[in-house]
Specification:
The chain is α/β, with parallel strands linked by helices and 556 residues long. It has three domains: 235 residues, P-loop containing nucleotide triphosphate hydrolases (Rossmann fold), CATH 3.40.50.300; 56 residues, no CATH class; 200 residues, Nucleotidyltransferase, domain 5 (2-Layer Sandwich). The strands form four sheets. It has a seven-stranded mixed beta sheet, with helices on both faces. Strands 13-12-11-14-15 form a five-stranded mixed beta sheet. It has a three-stranded antiparallel beta sheet with strand order 1-3-4, with no helix packed on it. It is elongated and about 85 Å long. The termini are far apart. The C terminus is likely disordered. This is Phage terminase large subunit-like protein.
């Protein structure tokens, strides 16, 4: 759609069909198909044939406010398994950002947005030192510098900087502007006024200099507000605990702490990960890869991918196979419990006042039901959690959690002690608390006061520093989850904590730890669940349900 067709009258978007959204993406799809091609590979130079998934992504990338015409997103995150042409797609978008009508320039007579090119674009394709220029830049350099000047001189004529796409480091756009391959060193050496950035394969950005590279260019983006700059982050699943840029991104997305200006398009295999179950895994692959594994038009064979997943030289463990080919962020053998095992035991969270349950009984813990409590407290660093465990079936659920806020809000923060104690008192009033195990570290006087109010047989100081006792409690929780004997709520904080938990061995004891002692990735919900479930097990062993427990219990 040419800029000459735009209307000077002030108006807004008029949808033309059901599901039609205000986006320049529809026109850009036509532009890509007219002026771009496949990059290096088996189909190099051939016409593009976007599948529906990618088409939907492009439309979303260029979503506009239907009144003002401004871009909705300053960052789009595109996460798919290995081989799904993420880098090629990002390379095509990169070319469009350099040469195509990608910014709003008014409405046409039909109420449709009209685009114009970015004036003097500065585009950076970020890459690790190991991968040098990176696949995204190589695709862009081939289209704009090697293929384009001959095939479409009206668009790419005069492009400079490219002799061979494989060795190029910059593409100079006629009329001003450039596309650069950018590594950590070069990113830190200039002030930058980027209009578009591609952090490609951001699960690899684990080193400090790579994380700083990402942070530097993302801080530069607001400098050119009129250009409406944005970033397209692409990645395959991260390895939990490495602290990569993509791990931080997806964790924030799952916690719903990303702003509306960030759009995340993440797809991973659903259901449990059972790599050795051939039929099950092949079904997951076909579902996840979609058109890429279509028998008629796809370019990937699920059987070939499955062979790679089973080859220990290429995928040394199931977690590696799941990360790359099922796009599931899974820890390796040092994880305390596999992510899919914990997920498989999830049931909806219990109802609380003003927060209806996601699903009716039996997974809602009703007032008056018999439960146990597990409390792991801190003062100003770790998350303080109060977890419950239903006596009848071992269902674990969140009662309260007080995490340290991220960023500047966490500076000088202390746990709201009065709020925590009030929530504990409320739990005793709401439920029939058979007993609670409370780690006394930094809370001993408060636990003594709670015992005075609610009874020494129901408020019990339980030292988590006792390695053998803690090993037994953790082992009981681990076995219950693994065998399916117990269930837990869908609390996202607890799921995050379980994903952060690693094995710590001390003599014969199998304990739990963070990936590093200084890590800010918490595991407190695991400890809280272990205490609550241990309290239930002890109560059952001492005859709960057969007779009323009136004894005072003292743990040394």
């Amino acid at each position: 759609m040419s800029a000459g067709r735009r209307s000077t009258a002030a108006r807004g978007f008029v949808p033309l069909f059901d599901g039609h959204v205000c986006s320049l993406g529809y026109d850009m799809l036509d532009w890509y198909e007219a002026y771009c091609c496949h990059g290096p590979g088996d189909v190099q130079g051939e016409p593009l044939d976007f599948d529906d998934e990618v088409r939907d992504l492009i439309v979303e990338c260029y979503r506009l406010d239907p009144v003002t015409g401004r871009r909705l997103y300053s960052e789009v995150v595109y996460s798919r398994p290995k081989g799904r042409s993420k880098s090629e797609t990002a390379g095509v978008v990169t070319v469009g950002e350099g040469y195509g009508p990608v910014r709003f320039d008014g409405w046409d007579a039909n109420g449709q947005p009209v685009g114009r090119p970015v004036r003097s674009p500065l585009i950076k394709c970020l890459a690790t030192e190991e991968s040098q220029a990176g696949n995204t830049f190589e695709n862009a350099a081939f289209i704009a510098g090697a293929w384009g000047p001959d095939e479409h001189p009206e668009i790419y004529g005069g492009t400079g900087g490219v002799r061979r796409a494989e060795s190029a480091t910059a593409v100079y756009i006629p009329g001003g502007g450039e596309i650069r391959a950018c590594t950590a060193g070069s990113a830190s050496k200039d002030g930058g006024k980027e209009t578009f950035v591609v952090p490609d394969e951001s699960h690899l950005y684990v080193l400090r200099e790579l994380r700083q590279m990402y942070a530097t260019v993302m801080r530069n983006l607001p400098k050119r507000r009129l250009a409406e700059p944005w970033a397209m982050q692409t990645s395959t699943a991260y390895r939990p605990g490495e602290g990569s840029v993509f791990e931080e991104t997806l964790t924030a997305w799952r916690k719903k702490t990303l702003g509306p200006e960030v759009h995340v398009d993440h797809r991973e295999a659903t259901g449990p990960v059972r790599i050795r179950d051939r039929a099950h895994t092949l079904r997951q692959l076909r579902e996840l890869y979609g058109p890429a594994m279509d028998p008629a038009t796809g370019w990937m064979d699920p059987e070939d991918v499955y062979k790679v997943m089973l080859d220990p030289r290429k995928c040394p463990d199931d977690a590696t196979a799941a990360r790359y080919y099922l796009n599931r962020p899974m820890s390796t053998q040092d994880a305390w419990i596999a992510k899919d095992v914990h997920e498989a035991q999830t049931r909806p969270r219990p109802a609380r006042d003003g927060h209806p349950a996601e699903d009716p009984a039996p997974w809602v813990v009703q007032p008056g039901e018999a439960i146990t409590l597990g409390f792991d407290g801190s003062l100003n660093d770790d998350t303080t959690v109060l977890r419950g465990c239903r006596m009848s079936d071992g269902y674990l659920f969140r009662i309260g959690a007080w995490p340290k806020p991220d960023g500047a809000a966490g500076i000088g923060w202390v746990v709201p002690r009065s709020d925590v104690l009030a929530e504990i008192d409320l739990a005793f009033a709401r439920y029939d608390v058979v007993r609670g195990y409370f780690d006394p570290h930094e809370w001993r006087s408060d636990i003594d006061a709670l015992a005075d109010r609610h009874g020494e047989s129901r408020v019990i100081a339980w030292e988590t520093r006792r390695d053998l006792a803690m090993h037994a409690a953790l082992d009981r929780l681990h076995a219950g989850l693994r065998t399916g004997e117990i269930w837990h709520d869908s609390d996202p904080l607890a799921a995050e904590h379980y994903g952060n938990a690693y094995v710590r061995r001390k003599g014969s004891a199998r304990l739990v730890r963070k990936e590093t002692p200084s890590s800010d990735r918490k595991i407190d919900s695991v400890v809280g669940d272990a205490l609550a479930y241990e309290a239930r097990a002890d109560a059952l062993a001492e005859g709960w349900g057969a007779k009323k427990d009136r004894r005072v219990i003292v743990l040394s």
